[in-house]
Design goal:
With 389 residues, this protein is mainly alpha-helical. The chain is 54% helix and 8% strand. Strands 1-7-6 form a three-stranded antiparallel beta sheet, with helices on one face. α1 crosses α2. The two termini are 22 Å apart.
């Protein structure tokens, strides 16, 4: 029906079509997003019909140009007289829920972490940033009651935005210093001025944010530590860290201590950087970069598996990292495919295969055993509506 098409298309386009004054539909349940579309249909149609002369509601969106494109598409569908059969060319995005942590939770079969990043079916979408903020808030309240002055100063500041960047970059191996600087930026945005207060409070906040992350994603921390230790052993034996993705793509980390040469000319001074395999390895970089690089190789494998299957089934597909796109008429099929491919990918013994590859490369090195896994049933991903949404 026209009503169904309008609701479905607007719900699919909701992540970049929401007005700041109304709250983000992507944080609502599927039914909540449909209700949001119905409540805002007049503004959507007005923006699509009169983008410059109407109420210009689309300008209030986070991404106004994408919002306007969605509004025009809905308007055109209804104006066609046969919205159900309207041929839409606008891509509908389906985004992962903190995708790096989704892969860590799957690798470790982490049930608690899996629930936080929507690997497990639920009636409402889980928001990992809010979940971490709640853990941090509880810890801050407890410490404040015990007289911790930094906790007392932080009491009114803990929210989703304070911890979001640190949670996002945890997958990329954010350090304590990095987390402290991120939280420092958030506090300064809120008007904090006393440098000593900012520094000490940010140190405290960074520590408990990272602690809360490790509590919610215990397996992720264990796997990250294991990957780091393996990389250290490989690099310490004079080899760059290398591995093969599940699709057979060989990956070699290029990090070496580059030699710089300064060349002075009449006009300027040039810096020439030599990049050669004969240069010594940058051991610290080889070690710290491996966990995020490995996870990127896994999430890119998932995207390629999804893209290949979409191609075989005749679906249009595009994607950037953990945002997969197709058209409104085929988004349900793409959702089925990307879930099946995620389960297929993580049904393989990925970490065991990686360990075996290291052992073949360096048979004389005693690598640590793969961390134990939890009890998460990966097949539940197939029925999780908010895994990608």
């Amino acid at each position: 029906s026209c009503h169904s098409w309008t609701s479905t298309s607007a719900v699919g386009l909701a992540p970049y079509c929401w007005a700041k004054t109304g709250g983000p539909p992507s944080k609502l349940s599927i039914s909540g997003r449909r209700i949001w579309a119905e409540q805002n249909i007049q503004q959507i149609l007005d923006s699509g019909q009169k983008p410059l002369l109407g109420e210009r509601w689309w300008l209030k969106a986070d991404n106004p140009w994408q919002c306007l494109a969605a509004c025009i598409e809905v308007r055109n569908a209804l104006a066609s007289g046969d919205a159900e059969n309207y041929f839409s060319y606008l891509p509908v995005h389906q985004d992962g829920s903190c995708n790096g942590l989704q892969h860590y939770a799957a690798l470790g079969r982490d049930e608690l972490g899996g629930q936080a990043v929507n690997l497990v079916p639920s009636g409402e979408p889980s928001d990992v940033y809010t979940g971490i903020a709640q853990l941090v808030a509880a810890r801050v309240e407890e410490d404040a009651l015990q007289g911790n002055v930094h906790a007392q100063k932080l009491l009114s500041e803990v929210d989703r935005k304070l911890v979001k960047q640190t949670v996002m970059t945890s997958v990329y191996g954010v350090t304590f210093v990095g987390a402290r600087e991120q939280i420092t930026s958030r506090l300064k945005e809120r008007g904090w001025r006393a440098e000593d207060d900012i520094y000490k409070t940010a140190c405290y906040a960074a520590r408990i944010t990272l602690d809360s992350l490790h509590t919610m994603f215990s397996s992720a921390k264990l796997i990250m530590n294991w990957l780091t230790e393996c990389a250290h052993l490989v690099a310490s034996n004079g080899k760059p860290v290398s591995w093969t993705t599940p699709l057979g793509l060989p990956v070699v980390q290029p990090y070496r201590h580059r030699e710089r040469h300064s060349v002075k000319t009449v006009l300027q001074r040039l810096i020439i950087v030599e990049n050669s395999e004969r240069l010594p390895l940058a051991l610290a970089r080889q070690r710290s970069a491996f966990p995020p690089n490995y996870i990127h190789s896994i999430d890119s494998t998932h995207m390629m598996m999804t893209a290949a299957e979409c191609y075989h089934q005749g679906l249009s597909f595009a994607g950037v990292h953990d945002s997969f796109w197709t058209h409104a008429g085929t988004v349900d099929r793409m959702n089925t495919i990307l879930r099946e491919k995620f389960v297929d990918l993580h049904s393989c013994p990925l970490l065991d295969s990686l360990l075996l590859e290291f052992q073949r490369e360096l048979p004389h090195v005693a690598f640590p055993e793969v961390p134990n896994t939890g009890t998460l049933d990966l097949s539940t991903v197939r029925n999780s509506p908010y895994f990608f949404s």
